[in-house]
Amino acid sequence: MRITRHAGSVRKLRRLIATGAATLALLGGGLAAGVQAQAADGGERFLPPKGADVVSAKKASPRIIGGTSTAFSSAPWMVQLLFEFDNDGYYYFTCGGTLVAPNKVMTAAHCVTDENGNALDMKGQGLVLAGTAKLAGGSNDEGTAVGITRSYFAGSYNADAIDNDIALLTLSKPLPYTPAQPASYGDNARYAPGTVATTYGWGMTGSDWDFSPLSDTLLRLEQPLRSDAECTENLDTAVSTPGAYKPGHMICAGVGGTGNDSTGKSTCPGDSGSPMFVSGRVIGLTSWGVASDQEACNMQGTYDVYTKVATYYRSIQPRIDDTSFSGDHRADLFARSTGATGYTFNSAGEALAARKTFAGSYSEYNLFVQTDLDRDGYEDLVARQASTGDVYWLHRSASSSTYAKTRMFSGWKTVRALVAPGDVNNDGKGDLLAVTSTGDLMVYPSYGNGKFNTAVKAATGYQVYNQVRGHGDFTYDGKNDLLLRRGGTNDLYLAKGTGKSTAPFEAPVLVRSNWSAYDLLVTPGDVNGDAKSDLVARTPAGALYLLKGTGVGTSEIFATQVKLGTGWNSYYTVG
Asked: What is the C-alpha separation between 14 and 383, in angstroms, rounded?
């Protein structure tokens, strides 16, 4: 594999919003192939247009524009997107991205689409380079390159308006570097005007389209956030297009371009998809800025524009917390037959594919819960041993197709329920819940490796519920919830998540009455792939139904049931 860097001088990459000199410029994404050459200093460079003078990288100002160099140890979640444009074995740097889970990278949608908004073949022609602050190409052979298996667009990306400019990439194997956590839905405090935010990137170090090279090393830039009113006035005026800036979907920042690279502070082409941080969370993704035929960025008086990450958190979170055995974006089912055999049933949206045998014997367990506890992209099982009550984490690695067995808890015979709802305390790691014999709801905050922090008592009185279930967000507010069925009446209750570590759930509220028609409720996650958690329910006669989540925390919480199959009473347990 040959990795070649791409200079921003090869092609002007911009979106024409209106006639006139000012345009809306994509800050990276789809940068075209350059002409490889050896510069006098021995490094790999690109030839400028014929007849022009070569600008040596030694003469370039080492900054985004106004930024400073940053070591990888300060930004271990930072990655580079590479793309093979001509199927010739050369990969070109296009954008930055953020590792948000061991096998997930968040970036801008325009980084993984063409100029018409059509998805690029990232699986066949894309790579992610992680583990280095140095730009790919030249003498740099640092870092870990990994393939991409799928791209997910959290919104309906509009290429003309550069709207809903966010995508999530799933990697072919997990990376060992520390992920970053996106800002949560409704997290308004981090977006307060005047807040100083930090942006990272390898983009152009000058505003000249033709002669400004990309940065050889990772740079960071601090900018103040602006109000939506300021952004609207500044940017709509600059591009002469009302509505170019879209509050809620976008944020903007900066002190205003200076038109002078020695005094300006601005992101530039090549910085696209890279993160903006406030208080340790990713609040934005570098998206676009104002440009002219001569200037690629840092235009006089203009601000830089970023995708507002918190707006899209509800959609990307289920994709970060995949519950899939098949490797797609839909949650699958696990079941153990009345014998010892385990099976997986892959979701086809509103149907289940034929069962597949799951390696191993499972006769020793009387309870299973599905989850990706370490968020490495390989579905795990939490299983309780019938004879001892010991609880095990059954998990596999990238190098093995078999499941390792790690004991997490001992003597849990009397525990009434185990639940793996996902991340309930908003720290980026999937947690575990247990209902004790006396009805206490205990939260075990996870370290993501089969070990847990000190348990927190979240509620009491849960002994009245004969089923406690949950995986993901049923109310579409970005927080993971619980479903509870009360004994005696069989009424269904919803305990909404709060995202707070001390009190992670609200008091349960009634959402459906008399659910005695079902003897088993299962919550595998987002079965139909619409970013809302679903419920799978079984009748005593063995009919299995999908109740699609609506995102509404009332009696309309589920759509009309869809039959998935019959004969499910032949399974001893369903995860």
From this structure: 53
